[in-house]
Structure formats: C-alpha cells, structure tokens
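Hey team,

Filing this mostly as a record. A colleague (T.K.) asked me to run one chain through the structure pipeline before their review meeting, and I want the input and output archived in the tracker in case anyone asks later how it was produced. No errors, nothing strange. Just documentation.

Input sequence:
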Amino acid sequence: MDKKVAQPLATTVLNKKTFWQRIKEERWLQMMAWLGLIWMLVFNYAPMYGLLIAFKKNYRITTSLFSLEFLKSPWAGSGGFQHFINFFKDEEFVNIMVNTLGISLLKLFICFPIPIAFAILLNEVHSACFKKNIQTISYLPHFLSWVVLGGILTSWMDENGLFNQLFVKIGLLEKPISFLAYPKYFWAIVVFSDLWKEMGWSAIIYLAAISGIDQEMYEAAEVDGASHLRQIISITLPSIKGTIIIMFILAVGGLLNSNFDQIFVLWNPLNAERSNVIDIYTYTTAMRSMRYSYASAIGLFKSVVAFILLFFANQFTKKVNETSLF
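Output structure:
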C-alpha cells in the first residue's frame, strides 16, 4: 500500500476509537495521572474550603469547619468583606506594605541577577576540581534551616560578634553595636543573608541551562575571534533567556512573600519598624491576638495579589519575548 494512503488510513482508525477504548488501552498511564490529580485535589483544592473563615465574623479555632455551627455563624459586615476593609484602614497597613515590598524588591533586584552572573562566571572556570569545590561551598548554606542560620547571624551581629570585631579593626566602626537592634540595618541584613543562603542553589538552575547549550556555537565564535565576554553576551545569555524569564515570572509572583522563616528568626521588638511585614503581621494577629478570621483575610489578600502579579508578569513576558508559563 502506498505510504501516502496508509498514513491517513491509520489516523482515521485511531480517531474512530472511543473515549473508553483509549482509557482502557492507556489504563496504567491514566492511573498514574489520576493519582497525581487526586493528590492535588485533596491537598491543594479541598483546603480552599477553609477560605470561608476570612468572610466569617469571628471564627473560633475550636469550631469544626464542617459543623453546622460554622456554617450558620454570622458573616462579617459589608457583605463579608469587613476584615479586608479593616486591614486597609489599619494604621500599620502602609508600614507593612512598605516593608514587604521594600524587602521583596531589593531581593528581586539584587538576589535575582547575582546567581545568573555567578553561574556564568562559574561556567567559565576550566578547572573541574576548583569548580566543584566552589559550587559545593556556595550551595551548602541552602541545606541549613533559617533557625540555624538565624542563630549564627545573631551571634555574628552581636556587640561581641565577628562583624563588630572586624569592622572596628578596619575602622568602619568606632565602637561595637548590635546590628539587629537598629531598624535601619534590617533590610540590608535580610537581603544579603538571603543572598548568602540561596545564591549557590539558585545558580544550579542556570548552570543546568548553560550545560545544554551547543558547544559548536562557542567553537564557531572562537574561530571568528569573539572574546569570552562577547560569547557570554551573544551566546550564553540568549540561550538561557527562557530559563531567566520563567524564574523572573515566579519571582514577581512572590513579591509579597518576604520569607517568613528568615524574618521571624531575625525579628525583635527593636527592629519591628522595618521587620513588620505581611507574614509577621498575619502570624501575630492569628497566634497572639487570636483573630483567625482577620488573619485569614490578610492571607487571602496576599494570595490574590500574588496571582494578579503572576498573571501580568506572564502576559508581559509573553508579549515582549514570547516566553511564558501559560
């Protein structure tokens, strides 16, 4: 039979298969897919029922979410949006948003590009042994929790700590100070400690992308007399552009996430002026003031804003560079 005739015939036979016939033939693959879907429904979507707490007047933790007492409990005022209105009117709202966005934007502009540059520079190293050692040292802090690193940083930034001894000896300080007691230093401490912890780990993604670049492109560039800098600009960066854009979209979507663990271990009443971010405010509202409905409303507000930022960042990169998540 002619190949040109056989191919459309095979396609027609395949299309005639019913939905259930395909399910039967692919039952093992379908089973694997359904297990993942069920897991996602149970752990990602079913808990969203609890968002009703944000619209209730005063949820009590002893009340079951599936009880009639919860379902019949009164809604918050203003059509259920009273907690959101109260948050916007709170005297701490402006300070909270300034701290959250200030820390997140600094992390975006400092901690996002540096791992890219680090990965590119590490790729230029020809000694395999040296490269492995540097990479291991750089991503080791990622495996330590912020509880451990917070204790180390607190000790280092104490009046008798490492930083004070170093800065006094080189003349940057006249006398030792406790850095975490001064709000003006808090943002810098958070940003550079996050860079120290995550730079090496973030660079792994870009190193993996760089390793997939066709080496013949570099060889052709060398033949044409291109320098290493020109190869980075003309070959490396354009080749990993897609990875950079995807990571940028995710970073923009998380602008309101200030890394609760990190700030919580470095937070204290003395630096609260600059450390009171949305996550800390939500925690103190829920766990100390026992205002669970109000705290749930704040958390829902943060999630909605994160989704909007993610959507617009995705649409922007889709139009500009034709690269997007969805």
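Quick notes for T.K.: The chain has a mean pLDDT of 87. The chain has 18 helices and no strands.
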